[in-house]
Amino acid sequence: MQRSLKWFASATTLAMLFVLIGGALVTKTGSGMGCGRSWPLCHGQFIPSQITPELVIELSHRLVSGLAGIMVLVLSVWTWRAIGHIRETKFLAIVSFVFLVLQGLIGAAAVVWGQSDFVLALHFGISLISFAAVFLLTLLIFEIDKKFDAESLVLDRKMKFHIYGVITYSYIVVYTGALVRHMQASLACPSWPICAKARIMPVQLHEWVQMGHRLAAALIIVWISVATIQAVKYYKQQRVVYWGWIISLILVLLQMITGALIVLTQLNLYIALAHAFFISCLFGVLSYLMMLALRSNHHQQQVKETNEPTKSVPSILLK
User: Fold this and answer.
1) Distance CA 302, CA 289 (A)
2) Which residues are annotated as a binding site for heme?
3) What is the DSSP string of 221-264?
4) Which single residue of 4, 32, 89, 192 has CA 20 to 30 Å from 257?
5) Is 88 a catalytic residue?
6) Are 191 and 197 in contact (CB under 8 A)?
7) In this structure, what are the phi and psi dihedrals at residue 115, rounded to the nearest 5 degrees?
8) Catalytic-labelled residue, pool 54, 58, 143, 151
9) Which residues span the membrane (predicted)?
10) DSSP letter for each residue of 267-282
11) Where are any strands of DSSP class E within the chain?
12) Which residues are annotated as a binding site?
């Protein structure tokens, strides 16, 4: 049973990644209206009479999202029954399914009634929360084997600040990136890292949106770098935190590189999809670090209430 659950959870996580990448593909190719103002059917038909590339992309995304929704529902019920005794399980099970349904409703509303770019930009972020919840459920399942040291972590205040702050700020970065896509502002600034060779500052709305996203992305790179340095210096013995930040730094650098290449290659589709893939993976890793930080808080509170001695930690972590 446990092995089957692991396989299914891994498959569901992969399916959610396809949902995220598929949504980015729909936006990048302008296929959002590939099925017209009809949902869930295409042009009001079960089998569309006129097949276009945009229709295929949009319909495929709907089918993948529908299949992922069924898988997430099954995973939520399965994990609730199998590992419901683990503190985070029930909350993540609810969040994973509710947010997936919510993103589907926003997508449907956009097709039927239309939405502003600022509202549509929320679509990717909501899907990202559902993906992160599924990803965390999968990690909880694999933690049953006790191959991680996630149960006995002790984090200092500075590290907790980095974890909570970076994941919150990363969501802002995700939103600005989605806004760039939906406003079709990806090439508003044809140079990189400055807006244009002749001038540094943007002068119109699309340029401000593009440069705002670049600035937000630059700040998160700096922040993750600082947190990674702290993890490397003080958390070598706590592998999950140590490697979590190193992987986060690698992913955010890959995100920066693909973001620059999107501009330099004039919107190469594969690079754009890789850009969405890296931010999805980064948010998943940061979500796991946040769960560990919350778990550490709970563990320390239990120790305080029972007057048990805390785990020996380096003195630098207690400052």
Assistant:
1) 20
2) 213, 275
3) HHHHHHHHHHHHHH-TTSHHHHHHHHHHHHHHHHHHHHHHHHHH
4) 32
5) no
6) yes
7) -140, 160
8) 58
9) 7-26, 63-80, 92-114, 120-142, 163-183, 215-235, 242-264, 270-294
10) S-HHHHHHHHHHHHHH
11) none
12) 213, 275
